[in-house]
Write a structure and sequence with these properties.
Strand content of chain A: 25-35%
Radius of gyration of chain B: 22 Å
Strand content of chain B: 25-35%
Number of strands of chain B: 13
Bound molecules: flavin-adenine dinucleotide, adenosine monophosphate
Helix content of chain B: 25-40%
CATH topology of the largest domain in chain A: Rossmann fold
Number of strands of chain A: 18
CATH superfamily of chain B: HUPs
Oligomer: heterodimer
Number of domains of chain A: 2
CATH architecture of chain B: 3-Layer(aba) Sandwich
CATH topology of chain B: Rossmann fold
CATH superfamily of the largest domain in chain A: HUPs
CATH architecture of the largest domain in chain A: 3-Layer(aba) Sandwich
Largest interface: A-B, 92 and 82 residues
Distance between the termini of chain A: 67 Å
Number of domains of chain B: 1
Number of helices of chain A: 9
Strand order of the largest sheet of chain B: 9-8-7-10-6-1-4-5-11
Distance between the termini of chain B: 57 Å
Number of helices of chain B: 8
Structural class of chain B: alpha/beta
């Protein structure tokens, strides 16, 4: 069985939660140790944290890796990893940047947005993915005979929070090789603050593509007014410029923690749900199979364009 | 700037409710309505806007079958000058790597400064663009939500967590995968599509593209779909049932109990 590696994301010196998830993913592929890979500049503390989770840690510590530029990290990984390696990445903006190209350079197979791993049968690792925004799941096999790059959905694996390892840290900075790149990191631009702060609201009336038309936004606003709530939304509403970016909930928007989150015409994609951290979720959707009903506390199968005005009217008495 | 945009024909989830078939191993494929992958529309729009600014032309390509003709014409009605259809029995069943291999053959037949894909398509892999770039040995950036053309290079923004944008400089030629929201894709009406209905769309086979038929298609795919299933639902939501009035009454009680009303 090939050696399994997990790439550890970290921000401002703190390990990403996926560090505790990828170790679990690795163990589902095969018994045996999973090795963490930590890259960056001045990362001793981060490597020590990783060593509490992983029995082996490879550290690549050099100024060229101060910012996680996928092109540069790919070069370092190709130089350091043995052929046939199985590499686990978080399926987020960084993993999506690195993973596909890495699999080509390692000549290994690639699968992403993995929600579960059912083990390995000979050369085939058995994966579960989702399609159509989570309405259906798919069994997929990936041939790992010459290695694999596997991107695992953040939050999908129950994390191993025991921090019970006392891993050995190996410094491979000297083996990273040529780290020049044709893509140069310039800066991070933070989002502009909007007029509303949905992260502070106790009650959110959140609308998705089910609102169907810009003209119907008023229906949501009227309901929110009647409830004393704030209107938030899923990404397609912002993409269409019907509401401003400050109102978007999700991994590429805001993380919210209201008392009550009322999802109206939102399907429940993992990027959307990734922005809801707690609260009582009420889902209203016309499709009884919508994935949002699996995470909601209370569900209502209804057309929001009829249901929302009816609720507003009742509240206004 | 010569730009190639890769587009895919996918089931339109806004037009269909995706359901399992009676055998429970595949989705119900009868009567599915197809359209262009949402992300690809943004990529085509961005390409057109770049060409409007700096000159050049936009070519759209898809790996598909005869049915894919309609999506190429749709993107041509938006303003892409040329369409190419890569089609061959040997292509069917390709995984992402197979598709990227075929597209590499398409790229080699032209002179492109910039290649664009969508950030992801219906199956949610988000892989073809990054694979294509690595095969071509050119730089790549994913989830691009801003493109600014400069002399011989681009300044691009990538979407990262929490709405932040990661700015990069990238040399040409390169491959970019485009994220939704970067622009507002223009509307195309029936009339626009009719105008391009007689434009010839060259069909390219494996041999036209110099693609080894053994390196693509089902047999070469290392990643294979076994079957579809409906995941076991966990606890699930408490579903409110009854007449609309009854549901609203229950809901108001629930809202009150959970601090959802002021
Ligand atoms: C890198 C990346 C980052 C992303 N970040 C985010 C993010 O931060 N936030 C986010 O939200 N998304 C994000 N997305 C997009 C995400 O994948 C989904 O596409 C999106 O969340 C879907 O939004 P939706 O639920 O409103 O639309 P859909 O998935 O189209 O769902 C619409 C729902 O409305 C229902 N409906 C339709 N009409 C009605 C009606 N009249 N009455 C009742 N119900 C109705 C339908 O049954 C359906 O369930 C991201 C995607 C990527 C690739
Ligand atoms: N069959 C195809 N033909 C042309 N381009 C494709 C095809 N499949 C995927 N792509 C491109 O690759 C992008 C990402 O798709 P995927 O890697 O399948 O998620 C899509 O948005 C398209 O730009």
């Amino acid at each position: 069985m090939a050696q399994i590696y997990a790439y550890i994301e970290h921000h401002d010196g703190v390990l990403d939660d996926t560090a505790m998830e990828l170790v679990v993913a690795g163990k589902k592929i095969a018994a045996g140790p999973v090795t963490a890979i930590v890259t960056g500049s001045g990362i001793d503390a981060v490597a020590s944290e990783a060593a509490k989770i992983y029995p082996e840690v490879i550290k690549i510590d050099t100024p060229a890796l101060a910012y996680p530029n996928a092109e540069v990290i790919r070069k370092a990984l190709v130089n350091i990893l043995p052929s046939g390696a199985i590499v686990l990445l978080p399926h987020g903006p960084f993993g999506m940047d690195l993973g596909p190209g890495l699999s080509i350079k390692m000549d290994s197979s690639f699968a992403s947005d993995i929600v579960d791993i059912e083990g390995t049968d000979g050369n085939l690792v058995k994966l579960i993915r989702q399609e159509f925004g989570g309405v259906v799941s798919v069994h997929v096999t990936s041939d790992i005979s010459s290695g694999a790059v596997l991107c695992v959905r953040p939050g999908a694996m129950a994390p191993d929070e025991s921090k019970s390892a006392s891993g050995k840290i190996t410094d491979k900075s000297g083996d990273a090789g040529d780290l020049s790149a044709n893509r140069k990191f310039l800066e991070i631009v933070e989002p502009e603050a909007g007029d509303v702060d949905i992260t502070k609201a106790d009650v959110l009336v959140s609308i998705g593509r089910g609102i169907e038309d810009q003209e119907n936004i008023g229906i949501a606003q009227e309901l929110a007014d009647a409830m004393g709530a704030v209107v938030s939304c899923s990404r397609p509403i912002v993409d269409a410029k019907w509401l401003e970016p400050a109102r978007q909930v999700g991994t590429s928007g805001n993380t919210v923690k209201p008392k009550v989150y009322m999802a109206c015409g939102i399907s429940g994609s993992f990027q959307h749900l990734g922005g809801i951290k707690g609260g009582f979720i009420i889902a209203i959707n016309k499709n009884p199979n919508a994935p949002i009903f699996q995470v909601a506390n209370v569900g209502i199968v209804a057309d929001i364009l009829e249901f929302m005005p009816a609720l507003t009217e009742k509240l206004q008495g | 700037m010569e730009i190639l945009v890769c587009v895919k024909r996918v089931p339109d989830t806004a037009e269909n409710e995706i359901e399992m078939n009676s055998a429970g191993n595949d989705i119900e494929r009868d009567d599915l309505v197809y359209s262009v992958n949402e992300w690809d529309n943004y990529a085509v729009e961005e390409a057109i806007q770049i060409v409007d600014k700096v000159g050049g032309s936009v070519t759209v390509v898809t790996v598909g079958d005869e049915d894919s003709d309609e999506i190429l014409r749709r993107e041509m009605a938006m303003g892409a000058e040329k369409g190419l259809l890569a089609t061959d029995d040997a292509f069917s069943g390709s995984d992402c790597k197979g598709i990227a291999t075929i597209l590499k053959g398409v790229v080699a037949k032209g002179q492109y400064d910039l290649i664009m894909t969508g950030a992801q398509a219906d199956e949610g892999y988000g892989a073809v663009g990054g694979m294509l770039a690595a095969m071509m040995d050119v730089p790549y950036a994913s989830l691009v939500n801003k493109v600014d053309v400069q002399d011989g290079k681009l300044v691009i923004g990538r979407e990262i967590q929490g709405g932040s944008q990661e700015m990069n400089e990238i040399t040409l030629p390169c491959v970019l995968s485009i994220q939704t929201g970067i622009n507002e894709p223009r509307y195309v009406g029936i009339r626009g599509i009719r105008k391009v209905s007689s434009v010839e769309i060259p069909e390219l086979s494996a041999s036209d593209l110099g693609v080894d038929a053994g390196s693509v298609g089902e047999a070469a795919a290392k990643v294979k779909k076994v079957d579809y299933f409906v995941p076991e639902k966990g606890e699930g939501a408490e579903m409110l049932e009854g007449s609309t009035d009854e549901i609203i009454e229950k809901l108001i009680e629930i809202l009150k109990a959970n601090g959802g009303l002021k």
